[in-house]
Every structure is written in structure tokens, then in C-alpha cells.
């Protein structure tokens, strides 16, 4: 799991006292995002279907001087999303920021893709984002505005071999984000998407990246790190991005910048469904 950074807020990007929810916060990008937001003064609900992971993330944040709690949330269930928001408001007074990050995916060819795996991926990666947007968006209307950041993927920008459901869901996320930005903008709510490439978010992903020599395929010649994605999330969540909404931001080491792009590696920033994180 990503270790929480030192609690020294970067200048100019303070989020002091703001209530935040992060889904898929049990490890990987979600854990790093929760820690980065807390380091800037936000108070964070760390949500994950793996409650143990969510609580560990919250404990690390608290140990570093931040304010966080963990709770079990299945993002595919409306009642879980609503409970996440209710508990955050009860503890912190409002929801000002959301990072909707939970995701999953399975590998199979288009012609053989199991329908149960398709439905599971769509439920977590697309339905879960809609439910998260609804629950947090309503709370932000009550709070007078806010910022929502949604994790898509480079697989949401290009086709990916052996990842039909994941790529389709992540393409769908971008349409949902743009639509939400149009509808929620007049209510003072900004909505943006990030598209990570290969992120070495844990030991397994680092080992996979080394075995496949993933870094050599990117202009920057290395895989990304969870804290690098978290810094982008924190920027988009904060006031420094006050006129940014409806945007789609790649963070992929230049992977999609030119013809060297290899669609078989775009989606490997996700982990498994059980943990619902990237």
C-alpha cells in the first residue's frame, strides 16, 4: 500500500477543512489520492469494498497528522453511496470534493468475453461512477459547490486488446463526466476526468511492469507512480483549477503522444474487482 506522504501542505493548494470522499481508497491510486488530499488539509472518507484497506489508509493519514476515517462501500449500490455521503457530512459537515476512483476489469477476447464479467466491470466502472456522481453531487449542491474528479484510463481513449469491458466502460466514463460538467457547472460543481496509463501502484504492478518492460514503451521510459496521479487529483480538486471543468487529463508518461503507443498496456493500471481500486 502507498505510504501517506508527510503532512506538509504544498503552498497555494490548501484544502483546509474540506470534506472529501475517495472511493477505491484501500490501496493504489485511491490511497495515494486520499493521503495527498489530507496532506493539503482536507478531511477524508476513505471508501472501499475492502474495509480493511480503507481503514489502513485512514490510519496512515491519521498517524501523519491528518483527519480521515475508513468505511466499507460497494460503489454499485445506491444505498452504499448514500451512506458514504451521509457519514462524511455527519463527521465533517459537508462534502466539498469527491474522487470517484473505484474500478475493476478482467481480461478476455471480445468473442469470448463472459457476460458476468462484462456486467461486473460495467457495474463497478460505469454504474458506480453514476451513483457516486449522484450522491456526492447532491451533497455539493447543498454545500454551495464543489469538485468531482473521476478516474477513467488511457483505455478510455483508445481500444485495448483483451479488455473490452474495461475499455468500453472507461470510454463511457468520459461521456458521463462531460455531461455532468455541463449540467452541474451552473450549480458551482466542477467535474473532470483523469486517464492514467500504466501505474506501478503496488508490488504486483511493479513486478508486472518489469516483466513486460513497460517503461521502454513510454517516452519517459518508466511506469508511473500512484503519488504522481494523486498530485493531479489534488490540483483538479483545489481552487487552483477553479476554471477547469469537463476536462480529460492523461497522465501516462507520454504513452499516447505518438505512434509508439501499445494498446495492450494501456489498461494495466487497474487491479482486481475484490479491492475496487486502481
Features:
278 residues, alpha/beta, 7-stranded parallel β-sheet, 7 helices, 7 strands, 40% helix, disordered N terminus, disordered C terminus
Describe this structure in words.
This protein is of the alpha/beta class and 278 residues long. The protein is 40% helix and 14% strand. It has seven helices and seven strands, in the order βαβαβαβαβαβααβ. The chain has helices at residues 28-39, 51-63, 78-92, 115-143, 164-184, 203-211, 226-237, and strands spanning 19-23, 43-48, 67-72, 97-100, 146-151, 189-196, 248-251. A seven-stranded parallel β-sheet has the order 3-2-1-4-5-6-7, with helices on both faces. Helix 2 links the parallel strand 2 and strand 3 (67-72). Helix 1 (28-39) packs parallel to helix 2 (51-63), helix 1 (28-39) packs across helix 7 and helix 3 (78-92) runs parallel beside helix 4. It is globular and about 45 Å long. The protein starts with 18 loop residues before the first strand and ends in a 27-residue tail after the last strand.
Low-confidence stretches: 1-6, 268-278
**Mean of the pLDDT scores?**
88
In spatial order, strands of the major sheet run: 3-2-1-4-5-6-7
Number of helices: 7
Please describe the biggest sheet, giving its number of strands, its sense, and whether it closes into a barrel: 7 strands, parallel
Task: State which percent range the strand residues make up.
Answer: 5-15%
Helix vs. strand class: alpha/beta
- Count of β-strands: 7
Chain oligomer state: single chain
